[in-house]
């Protein structure tokens, strides 16, 4: 009787509409469980689909916003790149058809001068620069305006941006790369070491990756530094001397760059020329350099700090005028030899070279100051102190016999003449008035 009552309790309110199941309570419970689980599974699928849709849309919006916010890309941008990269040498000229050169750090000191020289002789030039704030970016922007007035287009971007580099090589089959972008300065490395690794090592690798994947592969000429000689005390510095004892992080990153470029030459067949610059100076120079800051402080009546080495020995530098450096850079491009890789695969040995580019006539810092005093007609207020342990070396002196032999490199500008040209530019650029000792544009 109890079983019948239980069955009657389970009948629907409208008899005859549903067939009565007699398989027992366990079957009914399992049925309800599976029905509930199926519903939950459907809801879970729905939530997963909604989440995936949201994430995809968010990724699309983020990518799109980054694309539209980028300072490069588009048909107009590509036309500017192609026009700037096109050589303009006269047909049948003795120099040939002309080069198409990507110049990194084009708004920098050496980059601007090299870009102008290349364009002047009819080569195609495209620049790239990130316009960082290591020193006043307005000077770099003024250099960019100067380049633009001569038909050189400078892309604002970072050499660590692989997408940008790939795009540049897709748009233009560059024959050469002149790699001058770097975090400069020996002393600043103690304040911001990460910037040196980011620019001088990671940035170099990023650029070399783009070069070895390019078709055709360009020949690479890049700026190393005389700082790689470090604690070497054999003078004059020769390319055959030891460079495994750097005195600063800056020097260490440049030495690492020489090892890295050698690796890409060996594995991928990139033609590589490294140039060890010796204390480059001149118009449009870097404000962090001693000759530049000395000039500014002398004119403003501020004291300058002159360092001395141990035992009161005056520091000496192989000051090299910018025009001489430019001739060495262009000669390196002209004689670089072709890369031998295709699509990242080496097909044969490619040239690998390193040259010193200096003036071969070291001058002491006090002599430099006396020359500036004479041209500025102002006496400097000097604080002479012992050189701190910040990575600076007491002297530099270049042996340029290898560059003279293979590049026909021959510096012609003395420090006297070079500083005279620099002072003339400085007074003109900053609007200095000798009568009132004021600056109009600082």
Automatic annotation (TrEMBL):
Lineage top rank: taxon: Eukaryota
Name of this chain's protein: Uncharacterized protein
């Amino acid at each position: 009787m109890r079983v019948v009552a239980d069955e009657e309790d389970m009948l629907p309110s409208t008899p005859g509409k549903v067939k009565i199941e007699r398989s027992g309570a366990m079957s009914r419970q399992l049925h309800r469980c599976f029905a509930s689980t199926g519903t939950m599974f459907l809801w879970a699928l729905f939530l997963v689909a909604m989440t995936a849709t949201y994430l995809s849309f968010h990724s699309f919006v983020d990518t799109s916003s980054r694309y539209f916010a980028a300072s490069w890309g588009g048909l107009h941008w590509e036309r500017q790149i192609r026009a700037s990269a096109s050589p303009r040498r006269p047909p049948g000229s003795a120099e040939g058809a002309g080069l198409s050169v990507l110049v990194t750090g084009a708004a920098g000191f050496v980059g601007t001068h090299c870009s102008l020289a290349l364009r002047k002789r009819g080569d195609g030039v495209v620049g790239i620069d990130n316009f960082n704030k290591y020193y006043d970016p307005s000077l770099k922007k003024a250099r960019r305006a100067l380049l633009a007035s001569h038909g050189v287009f400078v892309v604002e971007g970072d050499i660590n941006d692989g997408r940008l580099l790939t795009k540049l090589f897709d748009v233009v089959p560059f024959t050469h790369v002149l790699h001058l972008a770097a975090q400069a300065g020996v002393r600043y490395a103690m304040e911001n070491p990460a910037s040196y690794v980011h620019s001088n090592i990671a940035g170099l690798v990023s650029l070399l990756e783009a070069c070895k994947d390019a078709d055709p592969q360009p020949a690479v000429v890049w700026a190393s530094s005389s700082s790689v000689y470090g604690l070497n005390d054999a003078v004059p510095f020769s390319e055959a001397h030891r460079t495994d004892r750097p005195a600063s992080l800056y020097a260490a990153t440049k030495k690492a760059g020489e090892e890295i470029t050698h690796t890409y030459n060996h594995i991928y067949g990139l033609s590589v020329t490294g140039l060890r610059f010796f204390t480059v100076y001149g118009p449009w120079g870097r404000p962090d350099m001693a000759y530049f800051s000395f000039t500014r402080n002398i004119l403003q009546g501020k004291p300058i700090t002159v360092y001395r080495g141990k035992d009161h020995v005056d520091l000496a530098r192989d000051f090299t005028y910018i025009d001489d450096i430019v001739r060495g850079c262009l000669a390196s491009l002209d004689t670089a030899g072709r890369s031998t890789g295709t699509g990242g695969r080496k097909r044969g040995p490619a040239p690998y070279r390193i040259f010193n580019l200096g003036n071969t006539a070291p001058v002491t810092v006090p002599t430099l100051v006396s020359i500036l005093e004479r041209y500025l007609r102002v006496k400097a207020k000097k604080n002479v102190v012992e050189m701190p342990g910040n990575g600076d070396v007491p002297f530099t002196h270049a042996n340029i016999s290898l560059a003279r032999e293979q590049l026909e490199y021959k510096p012609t500008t003395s420090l006297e003449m070079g500083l005279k040209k620099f002072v003339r530019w400085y007074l003109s650029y900053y609007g200095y008035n000798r009568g009132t000792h004021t600056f109009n544009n600082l």
